[in-house]
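[Discussion] Sanity-checking designs against the backbone

I'm trying to build intuition for which residues belong where. Below is a structure token string of 359 positions. I'd appreciate it if someone posts a full sequence so I can compare it with mine line by line.
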């Protein structure tokens, strides 16, 4: 592990008791820090700079002011976020810890933190010079400051409680979402390991072949049979009311151009999907048809987004951040369900579609 530390509580407490000089610069101190500092020998040179942005509790600042006078200071020229602990030992050598943990029991022991221990004297002296500069720019803790700080810290504490409550709510939602998603995987796994899986794969192989024939896929969509295509309900049912518009798009070759662009894997899927909905704008060619063509083109890469998919998304609370565009959502769906396919060793997305129908 070398000089990397994940907890330094015991080391810091021992060094506080042994050192002849202690210099600490941290974003936050707690009552733990106040108690730990009582282990410092009365002849030890102690200086501490703490931040007030997070904030350090009012009673902690009062105790630091009362006990250490001008040796305890606050930094308020900018957001103060360091976690630096410098100790000079009896042999005059310096030991320094730089890390992520504040001068709290959580920061030194309970939280997930990381520290680096420096013993090279040139490096330690460079850090000490940095501390000297910070200490000299810091302010002594005054009664007037504490009076004004009381209102700020009280307001901050209320906001912090509100923030923690909101985080707890979000974590509960995330855990529930994961539970639902995991339950979906369990049901898909049951189908994957069940007696019907081979038949599902066989059905979908036939379906893809039939759709390819109707689209004249192997001939670059030269002669799309839109009547036949619309009769194929599998992989997403396209409404017959769009037949006239789609026939016109076939006649003008606009539908062929769209399908060729959709199947151009040199372009990102987001760009292709966006172009299909925003540039080509063929009536009746929505996500149902777009993803049906994509899935037939490459069922290993492209997921169906049809009525079955929508039902699964609603049932298992699969949502997107507000403001996410439809083409971005499709990319996320492909990525998220690709993991399921890989994990459960499902053949491809067209097979997954029928499995989700059973779910």
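Best answer:
Here's mine. Compare freely.
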């Amino acid at each position: 592990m070398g000089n990397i530390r994940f907890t330094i509580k015991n080391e810091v407490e021992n060094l506080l008791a042994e050192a002849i000089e202690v210099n600490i610069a941290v974003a936050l101190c707690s009552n733990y820090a106040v108690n730990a500092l009582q282990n410092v020998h009365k002849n030890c040179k102690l200086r501490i700079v703490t931040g007030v942005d997070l904030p350090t509790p009012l009673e902690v600042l009062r105790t630091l002011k009362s006990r250490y006078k001008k040796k305890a200071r606050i930094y308020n020229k900018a957001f103060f976020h360091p976690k630096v602990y410098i100790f000079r030992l009896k042999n005059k050598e310096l030991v320094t810890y730089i890390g992520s943990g504040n001068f709290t029991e959580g920061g030194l022991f309970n939280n997930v933190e990381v520290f680096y221990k420096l013993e090279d004297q040139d490096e330690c002296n460079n850090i000490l010079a940095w501390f000297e500069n910070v200490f000299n720019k810091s302010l002594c803790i005054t009664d007037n400051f504490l009076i004004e700080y009381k209102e700020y810290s009280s307001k901050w504490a209320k906001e912090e409680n509100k923030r923690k409550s909101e985080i707890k709510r979000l974590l509960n939602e995330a855990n529930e979402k994961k539970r639902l998603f995991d339950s979906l995987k369990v049901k898909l796994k049951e189908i994957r390991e069940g007696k019907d899986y081979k038949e599902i794969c066989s059905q979908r192989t036939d379906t893809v072949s039939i759709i390819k024939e109707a689209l004249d896929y192997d001939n670059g969509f030269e002669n799309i049979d839109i009547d036949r295509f619309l009769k194929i309900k599998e992989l997403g049912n396209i409404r017959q009311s769009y037949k006239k518009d789609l026939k016109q798009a076939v006649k003008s070759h606009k539908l062929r151009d769209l399908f060729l662009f959709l199947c151009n894997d040199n372009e990102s899927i987001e760009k292709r999907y966006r172009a299909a909905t925003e540039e080509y704008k063929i009536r009746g060619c929505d996500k149902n048809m777009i993803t049906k063509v994509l899935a037939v083109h490459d069922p290993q890469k492209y997921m169906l987004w049809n009525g079955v998919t929508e039902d699964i998304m609603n049932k298992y609370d699969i949502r997107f951040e507000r403001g996410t565009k439809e083409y971005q959502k499709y990319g996320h769906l492909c990525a998220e369900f690709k993991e399921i396919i890989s994990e459960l060793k499902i053949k491809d997305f067209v097979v997954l579609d029928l499995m989700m129908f059973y779910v």
